[in-house]
Amino acid sequence: MSTNLKLLAKELGLSISSVSKALRDSYEISAETKKRVREMADKLNYQPNPFASSLRRKKSITIAVVIPEIANNFFALAIDGIQMVAQQKGYHVLTYLTHEDHKNEESTIQHLQGGRVDGVLLSLCRDTADIKHLTSLHETGIPLVFFDRVPETMECPTVTTDDYESGYKATEHLIKAGCKKIACLSLSNYLSITHKRMKGYEDALQHHNIKLDPKWVLQCSNDNATNLAMITKMLNKKDRPDGIFATVEKLAISTYYVCQDIKLKIPQQLKVISFSNLRTASLLNPSLSTITQPAFEIGKESASLLFRMIEKKTFGNRIDKIVLKSSLIERESSKK
Amino acid sequence: MSTNLKLLAKELGLSISSVSKALRDSYEISAETKKRVREMADKLNYQPNPFASSLRRKKSITIAVVIPEIANNFFALAIDGIQMVAQQKGYHVLTYLTHEDHKNEESTIQHLQGGRVDGVLLSLCRDTADIKHLTSLHETGIPLVFFDRVPETMECPTVTTDDYESGYKATEHLIKAGCKKIACLSLSNYLSITHKRMKGYEDALQHHNIKLDPKWVLQCSNDNATNLAMITKMLNKKDRPDGIFATVEKLAISTYYVCQDIKLKIPQQLKVISFSNLRTASLLNPSLSTITQPAFEIGKESASLLFRMIEKKTFGNRIDKIVLKSSLIERESSKK
DNA sequence: TGATTTTACGAAAACGTTTTCTTTTATTTT
DNA sequence: AAAATAAAAGAAAACGTTTTCGTAAAATCA
């Protein structure tokens, strides 16, 4: 079939082992033999069989990225950063989408126990409450780094952003813009990012002597139609909020759609700020004030950390917790 | 280390081959032995070594997706569709980004000759003129499907959209909105999609007796700053176009930024229509008229076709050319 | 009962590498 | 010139599966 070491050896009148060593530039092989071998390998377009190699060396030169979704600016940018580092290291990248479904996350993790990859980058899905599949994976000893959506009750390396501070600042920004009744759109009951962003929201309110009203904390679902209905219901009431803090991009987009629909003026009647990596944030009508996470950097840092672990360059059993900063960008949607 | 067939066999007092057969549900193994084996496999959390398996069976259960970029709504959605089909088939997905660089495309393809994957899904990068790396890959006999950006001079299965018709319709739409001087923003000299979309543009102009002025066909680069400069220059002239047809999303976004910058009113002074998969198209200021490709469907169809080829379900040496339809969605940016 | 088939399992080769250990040949040392 | 060493290459085992083939024992048949 395709050319392998055996064929190459026959063609060159050498043994398989010598050819292998020549290609790996071993000191045991003379310079001229190496040259001959390399030339023949080029001529016959030899490509080593990756499975034979991986089987023998117990290295896959591959990492896995497990994320909730890909049609999402944050994750697309993060993957971009991950790919950049991986490509630089000569590694392959397997991507798995959980579609925010715990079952998918579990079965994916289960598959990855088989040694298919040398390391795993993971961002939890919104309904992951039980993490025993994660501890199980962790216990196999495979390098594992969580990014952005990380488990709260597990000792593991993570790359996140300053979610609490960002939630605080976003809320404070709305308060300073004159909002008194600030709603918070939350993605999940389980995610650390949601918890922290909401804690920032709560603390900012308290610090400014605004009482938190639980009816303005919306636990959104994974279904867009449901979210639209919930937001519409809230905004259609007489007693409606005058500010919205969306903890994730898509909830801000839903809010915009609702406001367009029910003709609520942003920012005159409702001010909005949201976590978002939209490239079109400043082109929206009105332009959207955002907390923007350094998504590409997060991917880059996560991958770099993972490779440090794979290459055992991380000292002892120290556990890295990298925290990057998000930036608040004021635009029209939250203007006073 | 991790539990393998050998350990399982020892634990069960069986031979390795029997255990293997039991797990693969062979008729040669009795029902009760199968049960015993499965229970022990579960108990010891046995996961077959994928490399040993792939080596032996000459199957990787993996496909490769090679695309120009991921932080791009079209490709993100396409990947989503691909992943859905792959997951359903129990296949793994390796993703490679070329970043619109021919060199990367070449080296990625080179790597894929080694048998790492059972099939390849590919969308060309903008500067791919020479396609001998592609014919070379094709000649290895590995199933290969191109989507959206396909080579024009190669006999191969493709999944595309009705680019010519869409280009024609988009241009005609601008003409009907009253435009006389319509510019076309092109991505590349080499891509089939650009050729076809531009041919539609040219034919629509001709059909409506508008003479094509070459100064209004802009060959954009891969550098955003350069594009902004080119577009600004064109729109700042006294003799500027009154309509713009952007062949790709990011050029429309650049156009919006330029108009915001130089205070040109869309659609009063300049009407805009663009190929785009922006979820926020209707939230932009003004909302953007788009030709929207069924990106998710394209991914789905491409993957399905690829799997038909992998499973040899495609008849003889027929070459599938699947063409899906894009839809023109009129919004404010091209209002009369 | 003896011959034949069926059932259930085991032995061993194969996939294509990598790597350890040997062996051969050439070179240097005494 | 004989012995020791160095250089270059080969033999073979190993990685963990899958699969072909062989072979007991049990079941069926004549």
Mind sketching the topology for me?
2 copies of one chain form a homodimer.
Chain A: H1 5-12, H2 16-23, H3 31-43, H4 50-57, E1 62-67, H5 73-89, E2 92-97, H6 102-112, E3 119-122, H7 132-139, E4 144-147, E5 158-161, H8 163-176, E6 182-186, H9 192-207, E7 217-219, H10 224-236, E8 243-246, H11 249-262, E9 271-275, E10 289-292, H12 295-310, E11 321-324, E12 327-329
Chain A binds a DNA duplex (30 and 30 nucleotides) through helix 2 and helix 4.
Structure, described:
Two copies of one chain form a homodimer. Chain A has 336 residues and is an alpha/beta fold. The first copy, chain A, is built from twelve helices and twelve strands. A six-stranded parallel beta sheet of chain A has the order 2-1-3-4-5-11, sandwiched between helices. A six-stranded mixed beta sheet of chain A has the order 7-6-8-9-10-12, with helices on both faces. In chain A, strand 8, helix 11 and strand 9 form a beta-alpha-beta unit. At the A-B interface, helix 4, helix 5, strand 2, helix 6 and helix 11 of A face helix 4, helix 5, strand 2, helix 6 and helix 11 of B. The first copy, chain A, binds a DNA duplex (30 and 30 nucleotides) through helix 2 and helix 4.
Q: Could you describe the largest sheet of chain A, including whether it forms a barrel?
A: 6 strands, parallel
Distance between the termini of chain A: 71 Å
- What's the rounded overall pLDDT mean of chain A? 95
> So what's the oligomer here?
homodimer
Structural class of chain A: alpha/beta
Q: Which protein chains are joined by the largest interface, and how many residues does each one contribute?
A: A-B, 50 and 50 residues
The number of distinct β-strands of chain A equals: 12
List the total number of helices of chain A. 12
Please write the string of helix (H) and strand (E) elements of chain A: HHHHEHEHEHEEHEHEHEHEEHEE
The gyration radius over C-alpha positions of chain A equals: 26 Å
Low-confidence stretches of chain A: none
Shape of chain A: elongated
Helix content of chain A: 40-55%
Q: Tell me the strand order in the biggest sheet of chain A.
A: 2-1-3-4-5-11
Strand content of chain A: 15-25%
